[in-house]
Amino acid sequence: MNMKIAGTGLASALLLMGLASPPALAQDSTLQTVIKRGQLICGSDNTKPGFGYMNPKTGKLEGFDVDYCHAVAAAVLGDASKVKILTLTDKNRFNAVQNGEADVVFFHTTVTTTRATAVGAAFLPVSFYDGTGVLVKKADQIKSINDLNGGTICTTQGSTTEAVWADYIKGHKWDPKTQVLTYQDLDKLFAALNSGRCNAMTTDKSALVGWKGNAPKPDDFVVLADTISKEPLAGFVRQGDTQWHTALTWVAYALVQAEEFGITSKNIPEMLKSENPDIKRFLGVDGDLGKDLGLAPDFVQKVVGAMGNYGEIYNRNIGPETPYGIDRKGSLNDLWTHGGLMYSPPFR
C-alpha cells in the first residue's frame, strides 16, 4: 500500500511540474552520459581486416566498423576523434554493452531473434549484408562446401556461425565424423587453418576475404563461392535506452542518406547552399531534426565531413581499391536506387 501511495505522489508531482516525461529517463540515457564524459566508448574488433583491425604498420585500429565508431563520436560530440575503441571478442561483445563498459558496439555482428530478445541487444540499421562462407588452402584442392563432408571445420566461439554449421550438417545429413572446432578469435582460427588442424576456416564471407587479402601469400587461399546462410550485420546498444538507440539509428541512416543525396566529405560547403528543401533540412540548415534527436543541428555535417558518406566508408576500407576488393556494385550493399538494400527512411 505504501508503494502505491508513493507512486501516486510522484506522478502528481510530475504533473504539477508540467513534465512531459520523467527526468530520470533523460538523465539515465547513454546520450547524456557520453556528452558529459566528452568521449564515446565504442566496442569493436581488432582481428577482422577491413572491418576492425590493428594495423601493424600504423599501430592503429582501423576498418569499416571502426569508422562507424568515429561517425557516432562526430554526431554526438562534434569531433570524430573523441572516441575510445574497446577491443572485444565474439564471446564478450554483448556483455560489454550490458554492463556499461561500451556505449555502443560495431563488431561484425549478425542480427538474430535470440540476440534481439534473450541477449538484450537493441540493433541499429544493417550496415553490411553478409553470408557464411569458407576459406580453404588452395593446395588442398577443395572445390565446394560438399568436399568438407567428414572433415574438420573451424570457427570462432560465441558466433552465429557455429550454430549455422550445426544446422547445416544435420540438415544435409553429413557424415557424423564431421567436426566443428571453435577458437577464441580469428587470429587463432587462421593459425589453425594454416597449421592443418582444420580443413576450412568459416565465418562471414567479408571477414574471410579480409583474411585472404591480408595473408602473406593471398593466392595460397580460396574463398569458396558457396554461401550457406544470410548474415545481416549491424551495430547494437543495450535495450531500454530509447533516446540513445533512436539517435544512433538516425546517425547510421544519415550515412546512407548522404550518399543518396550525393553529399560527400568534399562537397559539403557546396551542398549547404542547395535550394533543395530535403537537403537543407538534412544538413540542419532548416528545421530542428538534430535537436529532436538530442544532437546538434549540424550533426550530419559533422559526420559526413569527418568520415564521408556510406559509400566513402565502404570504399575506403573494403572496396575494390583495397586489398580485400569487395565489389559493391549491384550487390545487396548497394543503394536501393541501384538495386541494393541500402535504404534510409526520409529525414523529415
Structural class: alpha/beta
Gross morphology:
globular
Strand content: 15-25%
Distance between the termini: 46 Å
Relative helix content: 25-40%
Mean pLDDT: 90
The description of the largest β-sheet is: 6 strands, mixed
- Residue stretches low in confidence (pLDDT < 50, at least 5 long) are 1-26
Number of strands: 12
Number of helices: 15
Radius of gyration: 22 Å
Give helix and strand order, one letter per element, not per position.
Answer: HHHEEEEHEHEHEEHEHEHEEHHHHHH
**Oligomer classification:** single chain
In words, what does this structure look like?
With 348 residues, the protein is an alpha/beta fold. The protein has helices at 2-17, 23-28, 30-37, 64-77, 93-98, 113-116, 160-171, 186-195, 205-214, 242-261, 268-271, 277-282, 289-293, 299-307, 310-317; strands spanning 40-44, 47-48, 52-55, 60-62, 83-87, 104-105, 121-137, 152-156, 179-183, 200-204, 221-223, 230-238. Strand 2 (47-48) and strand 3 (52-55) form a beta hairpin. Helix 4 (64-77) packs antiparallel against helix 14 (299-307) and helix 10 (242-261) packs across helix 14 (299-307). The protein is globular and about 65 Å long. The model is unreliable at 1-26 (pLDDT under 50).
